[in-house]
Design a protein that fits this description.
Layout lengths: L2 H7 L1 H23 L16 E11 L5 E12 L6 E4 L2 E4 L9 E10 L6 E11 L2 E2 L5 E2 L2 E11 L4 E12 L2 E11 L4 E11 L8
Antiparallel strand pairs: 1-2, 2-3, 2-4, 3-5, 4-5, 5-6, 6-9, 7-8, 9-10, 10-11, 11-12
């Protein structure tokens, strides 16, 4: 029996063999000509998600000084995401100047990025600073701030929000929509619809 007659009588089998050989050849060419597999630059064991309960977290500046403290009942770091998700945090923002007290406050939620230099305070946000007397003997009354959805840079003591803000300092009140603040130099800027109440200063006796 000739080869032609053999293949003609077994056309289906021959077709299957030809297709299989073509597939194998294609895989070999792809492996030979394709790029080298990517290597992972990660060193160390894989990082998994975790949950903390009733924790205290400190962040430090480049000089090793306390920069931000947060206390909360629940923190979660999810798999594949180095950000932190925090419920009902209370926090302390240390003053950068001697003689000026720290800010403290709370919010409904908080989010911290992987580097720890970006903080989002979500939901209602409350901040408070006790009264103090400066080196010249001038009294600065207690200050409170009510706003929401704050983006902050803890290492720089800066914060911004596009939401309404209400600030009270002693008998003075300031309201506006959208706010930018630098807690280091007491700089405050309201973006829109700002108005305030400033009673006259008392005369020195």
């Amino acid at each position: 029996m000739s080869l032609v007659t053999y293949l003609r009588d077994r056309r289906l089998t021959a077709a299957i063999v030809v297709v299989a050989l073509a597939l194998v050849g294609g895989q070999v060419l792809e492996w030979w000509l394709g790029p080298a597999p990517k290597t992972s630059d990660f060193i160390g064991p894989p990082r998994s998600g975790y949950v903390l309960h009733n924790f205290t977290m400190w962040a430090y500046d480049i000089d090793g000084l306390p920069n931000f403290r947060m206390v909360a009942p629940h923190l979660e770091r999810r798999d594949g995401d180095d950000s932190l998700y925090i419920n009902t945090p209370t926090y302390l923002i240390p003053s950068k100047k001697p003689g000026i007290p720290d800010w403290d406050g709370n919010s409904l939620y908080a989010w911290v990025n992987k580097a720890g230099d970006l903080l989002k305070l979500q939901g209602p946000v409350y901040m408070h600073r006790p009264p103090y007397t400066d080196a010249q003997g001038t009294l600065t009354p207690e200050t409170t701030m009510h706003t929401s959805e704050v983006t902050a840079w803890p290492k720089e003591n800066r914060m911004v929000t596009a939401e309404p803000a209400h600030i009270v300092q002693g008998e003075r009140t300031i309201n506006g929509i959208g706010m930018r603040a630098n807690l280091n130099d007491n700089h405050l800027e309201l973006f829109d619809e700002s108005h305030g109440t400033f009673p006259p200063r008392k005369r020195k006796s």
